[in-house]
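Entry 14. Structure prediction run on the chain below.
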Amino acid sequence: METKLLRIVEIAKSEPKMKFTSLTHLLNEESLVQCHRELPNKKATGVKGTTKEQYGENLEENIVDLVSRLKSKSYRPVPVRRMYIPKLNSNKKRPLGIPEHEDKIVQKGITKILNTINENDFLDCSFGFRPNRSCHDALKILNHYIEKKSVNYVVDVDIRGCFDNVDHRWMIEFLKLRIADPSLLRIIGRFLKGGYMEEGKKYKTNHGTPQGGVVSPILANVYLHYVLDLWFEKKIRKQCKGQAFIVRYADDCVSRMQTKCA
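Output returned:
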């Protein structure tokens, strides 16, 4: 899979408007076994309670069955287990979705594919959940803008409920700009619509991508690339009478402007 992904990187770089039509075959037995091994040990389990270690006891048989369901289009992710964690500097709690281990494997494989394609499109202003980029890198460039550039305004923005309010229709439309593989889009759509379990009751998910899902960070980055990063780059910067910059880490962003916008 790694060799094929490298080839996709080359094509994505050289042809920025290229749509990839055949990707689901990359979720084969070899690549999914690797995804299983790369997932961390001793993590919280989903609604079935299957641990990585338990799944690995019959790994070959489980993966063969998983690939068969993916090929026949009968694979459906299990609803995630909803739990809540404390929100930083707040009395409120943040919802977290814990997928089944098998679904984590598929999400891991999809994440590799999406990163390979979309990483070439993302702008330099975004730093969250990207290879070889960290919050420290975001702070460094932000300090550079503030200390070395003339600054009139600094705007600190936290998008309220970003992960919870992603519009599924627009999410798929953004993915379609680079992906024309209906099978892969169908699987992603099923993850988005997979629902969650809380106190023994299943709830539908008509919007949002659950925090805690392996594939959620890259989906959020794709979404925010189109609705925020490109909007700022192509519209806001052109309207400003002077320089304007934005630094985004996941759903937190800071923009600085030298002079007022028109």
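The CA atoms of residues 170 and 235 lie 20 Å apart.
Filed with the rest of this week's runs.
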